[in-house]
Amino acid sequence: MNLILFGPPGAGKGTQAKRLQETHGIVQLSTGDMLRAEVDSGSELGLRAKEIMETGQLVPDDMIIAMISSRIDQEDCKDGFILDGFPRTKPQAESLDSMLTEKGLDIDHVIEIKVDDDAMIKRIAGRFSCAVCGAGYHDEFQKPEKDGICNQCGGTEFTRRADDNAEAVTARLQAYHDQTSPIFSYYKEKGLMEKVDGMAKIDAVTEQMNALLG
Ligand code: AP5
Predict the structure, then answer these.
(1) Which pLDDT belongs to residue 167?
(2) Quick check: CB of 142 below 6 Å from ligand 1?
(3) Ligand 1 atom 26: the closest Cα is on which residue?
(4) Where are the beta strands (DSSP E) in the chain?
(5) For ligand 1, is residue 141 a contact (CB within 6 Å)?
(6) 5, 113 in Cβ contact below 8 A?
(7) Summary count for the chain: helices (H), strands (E)
(8) Mean pLDDT, residues 14-25
(9) What is the CB neighbour count within 10 angstroms for residue 163?
(10) Does pTM surpass 0.85?
(11) pLDDT by residue (tens digit) across 111-149?
(12) Do the beta carbons of residue 13 and residue 90 sit within 8 Å?
């Protein structure tokens, strides 16, 4: 099963993709995480992407398309994948279609996580992750079970993203409304577009997703 998750910054795409990965045995492919790994590694792609990401703009389509195409070819994607943060523009959606056709693959579900813009700002402001294993948390909605200690690996160091500041979040939201929302009609025409209420609690959103995926 291959699926696409849509939602503005902070909608819960990453949170839900990690859960679906565990329950459905399909791999989360987050283009944001991939780009951040390139930035951390100091690669040429990472150097090009860093400044663009910090301002909240979208990185050029050609960089993303090549990156996702080679990732889908990896062995761990053979049972299915969750596209988290891709496609984000019409050219990316069209390239995805042609690359999947070439690979003999298809998209089974396209799910939009709907949230209010105000809620998303609160979510992003409170988000942090374990510096060791990357497990995601929130100051209010998803605290570690023991204060200051990662549930998954016991790590005690946490980080916050460089683009989780008011200016970049505003630009990310604008990019979502201007460049990503318009591609919903592309998937509606294909009869693939579905929705969940992202304002519900994290577990309730997962239940809605599981109901759609069967
Ligand atoms: P990316 O990393 O994809 O960021 P984003 O789309 O802005 O999404 P986020 O990761 O911020 O949010 P999320 O929906 O995953 O929310 P989360 O689950 O963490 O992209 C970053 C940048 O990379 C882009 O700006 C761009 O520059 C570049 N990029 C990436 N892909 C690209 C592409 N295809 N083309 C061009 N450029 C690209 O949840 C947020 C917080 O809320 C968490 O703390 C969580 O615990 C909490 N939370 C989640 N769900 C709930 C809930 N239901 N109730 C309460 N709290 C909740």
Answers:
(1) 87
(2) yes
(3) 58
(4) 2-6, 27-30, 81-84, 109-114, 127-130, 136-138, 158-159, 193-197
(5) yes
(6) yes
(7) 9, 8
(8) 94
(9) 20
(10) yes
(11) 999 998 888 888 898 899 999 999 999 999 899 999 999
(12) no
